[in-house]
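Figure 6 in text form: structure in, sequence out.
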């Protein structure tokens, strides 16, 4: 199969719709990362996504809809705070988990009685979803465990010859996956941190929890239990206070390989003479660059050495979650 990379335009959107109606899988731009989408009503189409990615069968998918799609067709009721959150943050990088009416394929939610819904704000995503006018089940468009894709080229690198079409909306500005928010209880609870922060949700909903998996419990958001986002080279990770050790580790690798640091701008400035990839200075910059640089790093380096950024609150919670999981850091 030939994989075309095309900017959404009237002809190509029609073709995307045809592919979706035929049960094919189409990759599309969103403001967070690229998605790998299929008709959420079709068992066969949804199962293709798992097969293509090599995704574990118990890791549910998010359903994407356009901004005017009537989600009451899919969900079984909504608490008042969720309606407030929808009008405050959607379209945008927030996925909301609701009680499901069970209308979409059982493979979307992997046997859970809930459904995760997202309304992306990217114009390319909106155009695609409006044209398809179907709920589109879509995880991130990367091979399972690999770094999430933030350019059409990243999707191509993982799925060339395996999918017919990538709708290219340019680089993803958000850079990390959506916040996943459980809206089935008394208060909203964050299952996966992202660009919509706990503080921002609490400001609208009055309160917001953060889910922590308890020992032996089945995770509420199964995806969070998997190792993820890993670059395909060796990795090491150091706190800023152990920069000397990190430099020694670099020198050691440099004897036979090509090491590279991944760190915030302030630390890059201390590492003159070393190969560095600069994550930036603000949390938003770090979110936007993280996956881009992890993919650059794995292509260029034999060992990628991460240094813990200094900021922690707000959007950094999501960035640190992805960074730690990419480097296999226990938290
Ligand atoms: P991905 O699209 O690859 O970023 O993965 C989707 C994420 O959404 C995973 O971490 C899933 O665990 C989570 N998710 C999808 N559906 C549900 C659901 N019904 N309940 C809780 N989490 C979900
Ligand atoms: Mg993913």
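Output sequence:
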């Amino acid at each position: 199969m030939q994989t075309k990379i095309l900017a959404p335009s009237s002809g190509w959107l029609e073709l995307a719709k045809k592919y979706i109606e035929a049960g094919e899988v189409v990759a599309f731009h969103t403001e967070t990362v690229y998605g790998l989408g299929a008709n959420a009503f079709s068992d066969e189409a949804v199962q293709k996504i798992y097969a293509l990615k090599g995704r574990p069968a118990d890791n549910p998918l998010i359903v994407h809809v356009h901004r005017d799609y009537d989600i009451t067709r899919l969900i079984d009721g909504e608490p008042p705070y969720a309606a407030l959150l929808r009008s405050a943050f959607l379209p945008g990088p927030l996925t909301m988990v609701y009680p499901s009416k069970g209308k979409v394929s059982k493979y979307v939610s992997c046997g859970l009685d809930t459904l995760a819904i997202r309304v992306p704000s990217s114009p390319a995503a909106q155009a695609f979803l409006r044209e398809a006018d179907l709920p589109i089940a879509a995880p991130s468009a990367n091979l399972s465990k690999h770094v999430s894709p933030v350019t059409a080229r990243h999707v191509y690198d993982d799925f060339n010859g395996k999918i017919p079409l990538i709708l290219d909306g340019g680089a993803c500005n958000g850079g990390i996956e959506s916040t996943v928010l459980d809206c089935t209880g008394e208060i909203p609870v964050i299952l996966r941190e992202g660009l919509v922060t706990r503080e921002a949700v609490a400001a609208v909903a009055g309160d917001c929890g953060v889910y922590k998996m308890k020992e032996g419990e089945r995770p509420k958001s199964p995806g969070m239990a998997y190792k993820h986002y890993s670059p395909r080279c060796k990795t090491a990770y150091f706190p800023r206070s152990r920069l000397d050790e990190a430099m020694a580790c670099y020198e050691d690798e440099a004897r036979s390989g090509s090491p590279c640091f991944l760190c915030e701008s302030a630390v890059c400035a201390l590492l003159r003479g070393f190969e560095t990839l600069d994550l930036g200075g603000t949390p938003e910059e770090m979110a936007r660059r993280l996956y881009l640089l992890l993919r650059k790093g794995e292509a260029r380096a034999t060992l990628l050495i991460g240094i813990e950024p200094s900021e922690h609150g707000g959007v950094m919670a999501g960035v640190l979650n992805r960074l730690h999981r990419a480097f296999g850091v226990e938290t």
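Caption detail: The mean pLDDT is 95.
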